[in-house]
Specification:
The structure holds 3 protein chains of 3 kinds. Chain A is α+β, with helices and mostly antiparallel strands. Chain A has helices at residues 2-13, 31-35, 59-68; strands spanning 17-21, 40-43, 47-50, 53-54, 74-76. Chain A has 3 helices and 5 strands. Chain A is globular, with a radius of gyration of 15 Å. Chain B is of the alpha+beta class. Chain B has one domain: Cytochrome p450, CATH 1.10.630.10. In chain B, α9 (144-154) packs antiparallel against α13 and α15 packs across α18. Chain C is α/β, with parallel strands linked by helices. Chain C has helices at 5-15, 25-36, 128-131, 142-153, 166-177, 193-210, 316-330, 401-409, and strands spanning 17-21, 42-47, 84-87, 91-95, 100-103, 108-110, 113-116, 120-122, 136-137, 159-162, 182-186, 214-217, 221-226, 232-237, 242-244, 247-250, 254-256, 268-269, 272-274, 280-282, 288-294, 299-303, 309-311, 345-350, 353-359, 366-373, 378-385, 388-395, 431-432, 447-450, 458-461. The chains are: A alpha+beta, B alpha+beta, C alpha/beta. The interface between A and C is large, with 43 and 48 residues. Bound molecules: flavin-adenine dinucleotide, protoporphyrin IX containing FE and iron/sulfur cluster. Residues 21-22, 24-27, 46-49, 56-57, 59-60, 90-91, 117-120, 139-140, 167, 257, 260, 296-297, 314-317, 319, 346-348 of chain C line the site of flavin-adenine dinucleotide. Chain C: Its cofactor is FAD. Chain C: Residues 425-454 are annotated as: Disordered. Chain C: This is Ferredoxin reductase. Chain C: InterPro entries: FAD-oxidoreductase/Apoptosis, FAD/NAD-bd_sf, FAD/NAD-binding_dom, FAD/NAD-linked_Rdtase_dimer_sf, Reductase_C.
């Protein structure tokens, strides 16, 4: 089972990196949408939409965005934190 | 030292080079009543909560006792306050309209796409250092760079710099609350300069309306969004604000940045080797040496209790951003410059509704400027430390920063 | 030989066995917190979904808009979680006395401490045959969202959304943004009325209608009808009308995943698993256990600020916070333990509006608009109960919300009696909040919250103020 999971995951995600925004913290300052417009987008004045999986090409943008967020709401997966599920 | 005179000491020019001990003193009294009746707040948590407090107004017209009736009349004859000095709903409407041509949601890619141009301007300025063995980082680099950027963004001819420079100086002078004898005169001059600058920019906008370009003045003069169109006076006051806020702050960030990196050369070397460190480094610079030390004065609309002290309705409230950024309750080892700091939620661009409008641009400018200076200057070093500072205690930064070097790399 | 409490804790952190059931948001965040908190013993995560923990809020937003892939909302990890992952395997039983978990594949796992984070699932359409029609959907899992997104891409002639809570409203919003015809059928008087009351619900109704939703309130869908090929073609409503629809999305709330605990002796049932403020599960006798913890959507726990009422919060932020508290308490004892004192907070975004809430709005019986205006759909609404502020909801005014959270924490008086910026005429007087069935707590709370750091967050008892 888990072997299948790992394979599917690797194929599906490829070199993608992941983000999640804590939208309770987010106050719609739009810094991320300015600095990484390919990944973050304001939907109206204050609501944020983002792509939770981004590719290497947008890595620099995302780093800038995450650093600039005034409420530090953007969690970018640290590369070394990648899990490889192991199991029976 | 009594806490009641802290504001006075902070604004005292003698303390400009190192106000940080005063801030440490200030944080012992989270909300310090000043002898002039205003309240000075220096703690991180207290400030960040006041930034989200709707009982705090940015509109000076809410002051209970306003001194200088003459000033008031003059002010009202001139330009109405811009977004930075108004409250919602007025503030929100002005900001939404100004944001339309500048950023998301309407123009999301503008700042991102300015990267290439910022690089070209920076490269051009550093190319100009060829054949010299020292420069003044302020006059030769960190002033002309953001001025060029904001001029292009707004659609203001760069050649007019000598004209608006005088007005800008007068306005910055008026924003200096130091209780010197000429305060009223400075404020009067500032108001006049603001009106003049507004008239000049409105004139430009009128020209742009007839033949619009890809700049903000053209957009603001022609745009019809959901909030309608900006009136001519709104356009004038908004563009004055953008022009001034767009460079008088960034100059400090870049200069403070260079000063700090030259004081801690290991970080300068690191920036050369790992240019990507510029992103967290600029955040740490913003925290450690913020370009704006005190936010514009606020007014309490109600009695507000903060940490057991009541700020009475109608009082002036000063928020010490630079002090908050060094609050040990919030930041570990706050007096250490540490670009690897992970938890770095500084208040240098404020927070709440008046959070800096131009911060994404300012960040990119500083990241590019410092990376390129670090990369291209061979063996840069400080000539004078501390450098001479600008008089203004709110917009704190060096007036000159002499840096010597052994050459310029390509 | 006397062994100190400290030594027992250290030994447990080193050699203990922790099992987490439910490998989603709460499960993952708890696992991370266990590791960062110093737990180096054996850690197993059991999840019945085959996927690594993924984020659900995008499923009714970005994913249905086609701007993010349903299978790519995998949650980033804060730190590497060194654990045994038993994904695609459900837990089917629990033996409390033997401290043993039974899995669907027949295997059994022994634990010293167990965390239950099995969340909820979408409440299915009540008629199983109708629910099985091609074209009837629910949205809870990434698979659900992928299927619905594919169907929306095929541009159905009309989508019926059954239920106008947050999820239903967000789905309707995504459909409209894609230019699809949408009917929303809601039993209550307005969308979001159960969570936010009638005053704010009326604004939500305007918002939907202005965006072209065919909103029908005060009606129920009574039957779904398929064609001979088993494809949905029509829906019947309680007002006697019927509608031709190709897609129906059932958004009638959720059911807690507790069936697997039947007979285990835990206080687990359709309303969730009851636990104390430290996340320890109660057994059926109402006695708190000390080795079984609960977090996330499946939990029901008392909140000191809200009259110690047991709150079930199906919110992202609650799952994160409660998981952190549970993990902390699993590897600490006595006074080092923490209470889950987080003030409930959530967001929703729909029709381009950012809706945020803090506190417990449906505990309020009155509401006052302190800032902005309902007509412009930019406002702060404050909810009061027995003279205290218990909640605030903002539409596109999120930057003020922290202030109101602090007001709730210090139990500030309602209605607020101070001047604020943007206070508009008509916003002064409190009016009934418009909940159909306000759930009134039996006694007013007498506590306030203090402290910024989780370690220093404390409940402070204060004499009841008049
Ligand atoms: C479409 C959608 C939109 C949402 N939008 C928002 C929003 O905008 N704002 C907000 O605050 N919240 C939102 N939420 C709610 C938020 O996603 C949940 O609060 C959160 O997912 C709860 O996390 P959890 O880990 O407690 O439960 P869940 O995410 O439900 O995870 C429980 C996990 O346990 C598994 N499980 C169940 N039974 C067993 C068993 N017997 N054995 C093994 N595994 C089992 C489940 O399959 C699941 O993987 C939304 C939810 C959905 C579905
Ligand atoms: C490092 C550079 C900068 C810093 C540190 C900075 C800092 C600040 C601060 C602290 C405020 C809040 C002022 C207050 O309310 O008291 C502010 C507001 C503002 N800034 Fe900046 N700023 C910088 C650059 C810029 C740039 C480049 C622009 C324009 C392009 C800009 C435009 C504005 C505007 C328009 C406001 C008013 C916003 C409002 O009231 O809503 N700033 N800035
Ligand atoms: S920068 Fe931060 S606060 Fe602003 S929109 Fe992005 S995530 Fe939200």
């Amino acid at each position: 089972m888990c072997d299948r999971v790992v394979t599917v995951w690797l194929e599906g995600q490829g070199l993608r990196m992941r983000i999640v925004v804590d939208l309770n913290r987010c106050q719609g300052y739009a810094q991320c949408a300015f600095l990484a417009p390919d990944v973050f987008e304001m939907h109206g004045e204050e609501a944020l939409l983002y792509d939770p999986a981004f590719t290497e090409a947008h890595r620099e943008q995302v780093r800038r965005a995450a650093a600039a967020c005034p409420v530090q709401a953007i969690l970018v997966e640290a590369d070394e934190a990648r899990v490889t599920p192991v199991g029976a | 030292m009594t806490p009641g005179t802290l504001l006075q000491q902070i604004t005292d020019y003698a303390n400009r080079a190192n106000p940080y001990p005063l801030y440490a003193e200030l944080r012992k009294t989270p909300v310090a009543r000043q002898d002039d009746g205003s309240y000075l707040v220096g703690g991180y948590y207290e400030i960040s909560s006041l930034l989200h407090d709707p009982r705090i107004s940015s509109d000076q017209r809410n002051l209970v006792a306003r001194d200088g009736g003459g000033l008031q009349a003059e002010e009202e004859a001139g330009l109405p306050p811009s977004m930075i000095r108004t409250d919602p709903p007025e503030h929100d409407r002005l900001r939404r309209m100004a944001m339309r041509p500048f950023g998301p949601p309407h123009t999301p890619r503008r700042v991102h796409e300015m990267g290439g141009e910022l690089h070209r301007i920076v490269s051009g300025l550093i190319d100009g250092f060829q054949g010299k063995d020292h420069v003044d980082i302020v006059d030769d680099f960190s002033y002309p760079f953001p001025v060029t950027v904001i001029c292009r963004l707004l659609g203001v001819p760069r050649e007019d710099e000598s004209r608006f420079h005088v007005w800008a100086d007068a306005m910055v002078g008026a924003a200096d609350p130091s209780p010197s004898a000429d305060l009223q005169e400075r404020q009067r001059a500032g108001t006049r300069a603001r009106t003049e600058l507004g008239r000049y920019l409105a004139g430009l906008a009128e020209e742009h309306r007839r033949s619009p370009g890809d700049d903000l003045l053209s957009a603001l003069a022609t745009d019809h969004g959901p909030d309608g169109q900006m009136s001519m006076v709104e356009l004038a006051s908004t563009s004055v604000l953008l022009l001034i806020a767009g460079h008088e702050t960034t100059v400090n960030l870049i200069t403070n940045g260079m000063l700090t990196l030259l004081r801690y050369p290991e970080h300068l070397e690191r920036l050369v080797k790992e240019p990507e460190v510029a992103v967290p480094m600029v955040e740490e610079l913003l925290r450690y040496e913020p370009p704006v030390h005190l936010a514009l004065p606020r007014v309490a609309l109600a009695d507000i209790e903060v940490k057991g002290t009541v700020i009475p309705r109608g009082s002036t409230v000063w928020l010490g951003l630079a002090s908050a950024n060094r609050d040990p309750r919030r930041f570990d080892d706050p007096d250490r410059f540490d670009p690897d700091r992970r938890d770095n939620q500084h208040l240098s661009f404020l927070g709440g509704i008046h959070n800096c409008f131009g911060s994404p641009l300012a960040r990119l400018e500083a990241q590019i400027a410092l990376t390129e200076l670090a990369r291209r200057l061979a063996n840069p070093r400080l000539v004078e430390d501390p450098p001479p500072y600008r008089p203004n205690p709110l917009l704190r930064g060096p007036r000159h920063l002499a840096v010597a070097f052994d050459g310029v790399q390509g | 030989m006397a062994v100190s409490v400290g030594e027992v804790v250290q030994a447990f952190r080193r050699d203990g066995r922790i099992v987490v059931v439910g490998a989603s948001l709460a499960g993952l965040r708890a696992a991370e917190a266990l590791r960062t908190g110093g737990f180096s013993g054996s850690l197993t995560l059991v999840g019945d979904e085959p996927d690594l923990p993924y984020d659900r809020p995008p499923l009714s937003k970005q994913v249905l808009l086609g701007r993010a892939r349903a299978d790519a909302t995998t949650l980033p990890q804060r730190n590497s979680v060194n654990a045994q992952w038993r994904l695609g395997t459900a837990a089917t039983g629990l033996d409390l006395a033997a401290k043993r978990l039974r899995l669907a594949d027949g295997e059994e796992i022994d634990y010293d401490r167990l965390l239950i984070a099995t969340g909820v699932r979408a409440r299915p359409w009540f008629n199983a045959a109708e629910a099985a029609l091609d074209g009837v959907f629910t949205v809870r899992t990434s698979e659900d969202a992928a299927r619905l997104e594919r169907r929306l891409s095929a541009r159905p002639s009309r989508v019926l959304v059954v239920g106008a809570g947050f999820t239903g409203s967000e789905i309707a919003s995504a459909c409209r943004e894609r230019g699809l015809e949408v009917t929303v059928a809601e039993r209550g008087a307005a969308p979001l009325v159960g969570a936010l009351g009638g005053v704010v619900g009326a604004v939500a109704a305007d918002l939907q209608r202005q965006h072209g939703v065919d909103l029908r309130t005060g009606v129920m869908v009574t039957a779904l009808e398929g064609d001979s090929g088993g494809r949905l073609e029509r829906a019947h409503l309680s007002d006697g009308t019927s509608l031709d629809v190709e897609v129906a999305v059932i958004a009638l709330g959720a059911t807690r995943n507790t069936e697997w605990l039947a007979g285990s002796g835990l206080a687990a049932g359709p309303r969730g698993i009851a636990c104390d403020a430290g996340c320890r599960a109660f057994d059926v006798q109402g006695i708190v256990t000390d080795d079984v913890f609960v977090a996330g959507d499946v939990a029901r726990s008392p909140h000191p600020l809200f009259g110690y009422q047991f709150l079930s919060l199906e919110h992202w932020g609650n799952a994160v916070e409660q998981a952190g508290v549970a993990a902390h308490n699993m590897i600490n004892v006595g006074p080092d333990r923490r209470a889950h004192l987080w003030v409930p907070t959530f967001w929703s975004s729909q029709f381009g509006v950012n809706i945020k809430s803090v506190g417990v709005p449906n505990m309020g019986d009155e509401i006052v608009i302190t800032q902005g205006s309902l007509a412009e759909r930019r406002f702060v609404a404050v909810y009061g109960f027995q003279g205290r502020i218990v909640a605030a909801v903002t539409f596109d005014q999120a930057k003020w919300l922290d202030f109101y959270r602090e007001q709730i924490e210090v139990r500030a008086p309602f209605p607020p009696d101070y001047a604020t910026v943007d206070r508009q005429p008509g916003g002064m007087r409190p009016v009934p909040a418009g909940f159909q069935d306000p759930s009134l707590p039996s006694h007013g709370a007498t506590v306030t919250l203090t402290g910024h750091d989780p370690n220093e967050r404390r409940v402070q008892f204060t004499p009841a103020r008049a």
